[in-house]
Design brief:
four-stranded antiparallel beta sheet; Aminopeptidase
Length: 125
């Protein structure tokens, strides 16, 4: 399995993963046929502040993660800083490893170790 940054070429695969996620949690969803278009519009609107990754098994997208990047308000005497909020993580059931729980799922929250998934730059103190 590989993990890479998503591009505009991945929008259809990301929409399919989102549909699979919703259906896994609530059964088959009947919609008006606009979901894929709506998802593409949402993705384009959010692309400037979200970093999205795709997990792939060969050529098949099997998972996704997106992180919303926040830029903190500047403070006198401090470098500008930013932080990320992991907002959506999903992997198709057939590609999950039941024995693996990432640190974020083991209760390492605000005060625990931080994963730096953003590009290098000034970091908060």
């Amino acid at each position: 399995m590989t993990l890479r940054r998503a591009t505009a070429a991945d929008v259809a695969a990301l929409a399919a993963l989102r549909r699979a996620w919703v259906e896994e949690n609530g059964g088959v969803i009947v919609d008006s046929g606009t979901f894929e278009r709506d998802f593409a519009q949402w993705y384009a609107a959010e692309a400037g502040r979200r970093l999205t990754w795709v997990a792939a098994a060969g050529d098949e997208a099997v998972g996704m993660l997106n992180l919303v990047e926040f830029h903190r308000m500047p403070r006198p005497g401090r470098l500008h800083s930013r932080w990320g909020y992991i907002s959506n993580v999903f992997v198709l059931a057939g590609h999950r490893k039941p024995w693996y729980r990432p640190p974020i799922a083991r209760g390492r929250h605000r005060r625990g170790p931080r994963a730096r998934l953003c590009a290098p730059g000034p970091q908060p103190e």
